[in-house]
């Protein structure tokens, strides 16, 4: 009796495969349009949310430099997972309750909402394309990103979350957004 249902089962499987492919295409469909404005809008919001420090800050400029080797990947999967991880860490750092009181909360919340929205779409795209499975992640790359952001947290703690330390971190975040832009271009 299973034989009469076999053509329906094959059609159902074929339809399921087509719907899965369509869902993957739709999940990533909006990323290119957002890529053009998201990162530069984020940099503008990052600038808007923090006034210039009233006192000069004398922190080492290269104390928190991002590992350039992470930007030299030619694999779209590695570029995408690195961009996602960087954005997730930026969200965690910038959503900290220890950010300076003089920062503009409205601009900061707009930046965090935009970041969260973009992270969600990027995760959805990577999952739909099978690029976010644990077995495929480049371990050393993600460890280096985690270490970089752990250094940022340590830098903030070492400087008692001062306005100057946060200004330095904000400048590093700006550089990270530019790095993410590079990674997303490699992803395409």
From TrEMBL:
Q: Which Gene3D superfamilies match?
A: 1.20.1250.10
Keyword Transferase tagged? no
* InterPro entries named among the record's database cross-references: 4_helix_cytokine-like_core, Interferon_alpha/beta/delta
Q: Where's it mainly located? A: secreted
* GO cellular component terms, semicolon-separated: extracellular space
Q: Please name the GO terms of the biological process aspect recorded for this protein, alphabetically.
A: defense response to virus; immune response
Which Gene Ontology molecular function entries are recorded, alphabetically? cytokine activity; cytokine receptor binding
Annotated localization: Secreted
Give the residue range of the signal peptide.
Answer: 1-27
Q: Which SMART domains match?
A: IFabd
Highest taxon above the source species: Eukaryota
Q: Which Pfam families match?
A: Interferon
List, alphabetically, the SUPFAM superfamilies matched. 4-helical cytokines
| This protein's UniProt keywords | Antiviral defense, Cytokine, Disulfide bond, Secreted, Signal
Function field: Has antiviral activities.
So what family is this one in? Belongs to the alpha/beta interferon family.
Protein known as: IFN protein
In the UniProt record, the gene name given for this protein reads Ifn_0
């Amino acid at each position: 009796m299973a034989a009469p249902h076999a053509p329906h089962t094959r059609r159902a499987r074929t339809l399921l495969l087509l719907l899965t492919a369509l869902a993957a295409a739709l999940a990533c469909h909006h990323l290119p349009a957002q890529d053009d404005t998201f990162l530069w809008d984020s940099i503008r919001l990052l600038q808007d949310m923090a006034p210039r420090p009233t006192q000069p800050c004398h922190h080492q400029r290269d104390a928190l430099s991002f590992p350039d080797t992470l930007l030299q990947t030619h694999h779209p999967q590695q570029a995408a997972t690195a961009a996602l991880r960087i954005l997730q860490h930026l969200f965690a750092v910038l959503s900290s309750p220890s950010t300076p009181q003089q920062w503009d909360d409205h601009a900061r919340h707009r930046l965090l909402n935009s970041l969260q929205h973009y992270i969600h779409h990027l995760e959805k795209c990577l999952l739909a394309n099978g690029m976010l499975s644990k077995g495929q992640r480049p371990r050393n790359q993600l460890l280096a990103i985690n270490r970089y952001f752990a250094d940022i947290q340590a830098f903030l703690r070492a400087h008692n979350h001062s306005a100057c330390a946060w200004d330095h971190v904000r400048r590093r975040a700006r550089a990270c957004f530019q790095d993410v832009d590079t990674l997303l271009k490699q992803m395409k």
